[in-house]
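Dear Dr. H.,

I hope your travels went smoothly. While you were away I took the liberty of generating a structure for the chain from your last submission, since the lab meeting agenda had it listed for discussion. I wanted you to have the full record in hand beforehand rather than looking at slides cold. The sequence, exactly as received, is reproduced here:
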Amino acid sequence: MMIDAQLWQAYADPYFKFASPPPQQDFAIVTACNPYSKLCSEQENGLKNSQLRSEVCRKVCVDVLVGNEDFSWAEASFAIVITKQQAIDLAQKYHQNAIYFVQGKQLFLLSCLPDRTEINLGEWLFRLR
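The corresponding predicted structure, in token form, is as follows:
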């Protein structure tokens, strides 16, 4: 399975609204919403994200909304202090195509599919809203 080019382009232009200050160390941004980019109901997504939250409850975890620039599209997500590989493993468990990883000041888009594409999206602080 490969990520559609148009969808990958949308993933490459994210913006973030944190519920509280983001973690101070490297972190991943992961959601359980809309597995394999198939739209689910708000109720289904809420249940999936509740399961994900329970799984990471012992980690530093901050709620974050990830969306396009005007947030006409957005998904509830979590900023979690875990390693890149742990984040990919977690995302695969919840059937996600990709995740974000913040390392220092840099934001990376990481494919969770076999292609393992990784791109640097630049300084992540410019994407805070």
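Two observations you may find useful: The radius of gyration is 13 Å. The longest strand covers residues 61-67.

With kind regards,
E. W.
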